[in-house]
Specification:
The complex is a heterodimer of chains A (180) and B (320).
Chain A (H helix, E strand, L loop, with lengths): L3 H23 L13 H13 L1 H18 L6 H20 L4 H26 L5 H29 L5 H13 L1
Chain B lengths: L4 H25 L5 H80 L7 E10 L7 E4 L12 E5 L10 E10 L4 E5 L6 E6 L5 E5 L6 E7 L9 E4 L11 E9 L6 E8 L8 E6 L9 H5 L5 E4 L4 E6 L3
Antiparallel strand pairs in B: 1-2, 1-12, 1-14, 2-5, 3-4, 3-12, 4-5, 6-7, 6-9, 7-8, 8-11, 9-10, 10-11, 13-14
């Protein structure tokens, strides 16, 4: 059984996912910069993994990916696979290096976004060889990585201010986990 | 269930990856009516109203955002179009200039073909490069000189841009009074010192057309007994050896006839507007063709028209 604290956390994450889906569909998908829009699902996956750990990041990524695949009429499981990988890897990296600050969020989001786009791009290229993979690196992957990283800073700062996540206790917990 | 945290973590990760791959595989392999697609469509049908409401709520913000981005792009587009417009205006002016020049040269060629000139007369088309700065004199500087076969006392004819198919607008301009290797000075017949032996075409009354400082032409020394009707055409008579006979000068605008005068005094309206001349033709008649350089004589059997940005040259010979 989950403890009360864990239930609250699950509730927060579910609420975060719902709000993220609404914001993504209502606002972010309608505003593009240089032809790309921010991927809030990926940003939230990174932040959840960053704040809670690899399992939480992977599970959140899985659910967020399923929702994203539904919203964007994609192949069900494709984005889920990418987000699970992102959530798990980011969680592991943070656990290993124990670095929690806004710049780490930015860099990890940029790298995650680029890698996620890369995986998606390879999949697209395999499925549709005519799609210009190299062109998309410059036109889609790099701009979106930069855009996601910038939006991630805002989202992370906002969530910390709203006390949805509290990075310092997490750091302490990480230290404890490290000693286990 | 795995005992330690690391194993549990790995187990969850592997399960999620397998779930994703399974979903993806089924999604790719099954038909559009398969169970995974049905779940996806059900999810979409749940989410689509949310997207619709979102679109309604976001519309004003979206419009505002587009307005700002469009404003920026419109500003840049306006700058680009302004530069393009300026460039096109420059080209339009250039094309108009070329069209005007073409029209003037056509008028000159028409005059060459329809005018009455002595057989074997050569024509050298010259550009007017300068004009008298004062009204005390009426002359123009042309861009051809002795190197092109021009000599002093050669007649010069011209056509105004608005000349018509008939001889209106085309007529005698003057004569060369000074020449260098590559330029010459043309004295207009409207110059106060200019005089041309002329005759009234209809009545054959002869006289002298003289210029004045105010630019008007007057035909003097016409016998009082001879009848001269207004609107009669005045042409050169050919006397004096400078101007070949039959070149149109102008039309009679007024006939003055005082009882005390020995001669009629006829006001002549010139065919050519000396103020707007840009190209003229110098007539190289067989009489003064001696010493003409090879360029002019060679051109006696051919007609060549060259139009470049800076110079225009036409050399031709009347077949008559």
């Amino acid at each position: 059984m989950l403890s009360r604290e864990e239930l609250v956390m699950v509730g927060k994450v579910v609420l975060l996912l719902v709000i993220g889906a609404i914001l993504q569909t209502v606002i972010l998908s309608r505003f593009s910069v240089m032809g790309v829009t921010a991927d809030l699902f990926l940003i939230l996956t990174v932040i959840v993994a960053f704040s809670k750990g690899p399992i939480e990041g992977a599970v959140f990524g899985f659910v967020a990916g399923i929702v994203a695949d539904m919203i964007y009429y994609g192949h069900l499981g494709m984005r889920a696979l990418v987000y699970v990988l992102v959530g798990y890897c980011v969680g592991l990296l943070v656990m290993r290096f124990e670095t929690i600050n806004v710049w780490a969020v930015m860099v990890l989001t940029a790298v995650s976004s680029f890698c996620g786009q890369l995986i998606y791009g390879i999949f697209q290229y395999v499925m549709t060889p005519r799609s210009g993979f190299v062109t998309m690196v410059w036109r889609q992957m790099i701009p979106e990585a930069v855009f996601d990283a910038l939006v991630a800073i805002l989202v992370y700062v906002l969530l910390v201010r709203l006390r949805v996540f509290n990075p310092k206790p997490r750091e302490a917990k990480l230290t404890k986990e490290g000693t286990e | 269930m795995p005992r330690n945290k690391v194993a549990w973590r790995r187990f969850v990760f592997v399960v999620l990856i397998i779930a994703c791959l399974a979903l993806l595989t089924v999604s790719l392999r099954e038909s559009k009516s398969g169970p995974v697609h049905s779940i996806q469509q059900a999810g979409v049908s749940v989410l689509s109203p949310m997207q619709s409401w979102g679109a309604t709520i976001a519309k004003p913000f979206e419009d505002g955002y587009h307005w700002i981005t469009t404003l920026w792009s419109a500003h840049k587009q306006a700058e680009s179009l302004a530069a393009q417009l300026q460039q096109l205006q420059g080209k339009a002016v250039q094309f108009q200039e070329q069209a005007d020049e073409n029209a003037r040269l056509r008028a000159l060629l028409d005059f060459r073909d329809k005018g009455t000139f002595p057989a074997g007369t050569g024509f050298v088309v010259c550009r007017v490069v300068g004009k008298s700065p004062t009204q005390w004199n009426a002359w123009a500087e042309i861009d051809k000189g002795s190197a092109d076969g021009l000599q002093i006392d050669q007649a010069v004819v011209g056509a105004t841009p608005d000349s018509t198919d008939n001889l209106y607008g085309k007529g005698l301009v003057g004569k060369i009074v000074s020449v260098t290797a590559h330029s010459a000075q043309v004295q207009f017949i409207s110059d106060a010192d200019a005089s041309v032996a002329a005759k009234v075409q209809s009545s054959r009354a002869e006289g002298i057309v003289e210029g004045s400082v105010d630019g008007d032409l007057t035909m003097n020394y016409v016998e009082r007994d001879l009848k001269v009707d207004p609107k009669s055409i005045i042409v050169t008579s050919g006397y004096g050896g400078v101007y070949p006979a039959g070149i149109p000068i102008g039309i009679v605008s007024n006939v003055g006839e005082e009882t005390v005068d020995t001669y009629k005094k006829i006001d002549v309206q010139p065919f050519v507007d000396f103020h707007v001349l840009e190209e003229v033709m110098v007539l190289i008649t067989p009489a003064n063709a001696t010493g003409v350089t090879s360029s002019a004589t060679t051109a006696a059997s051919s007609s060549t028209t060259k139009t470049t940005k800076n110079s225009t040259s036409t050399t031709a010979t009347s077949a008559r």
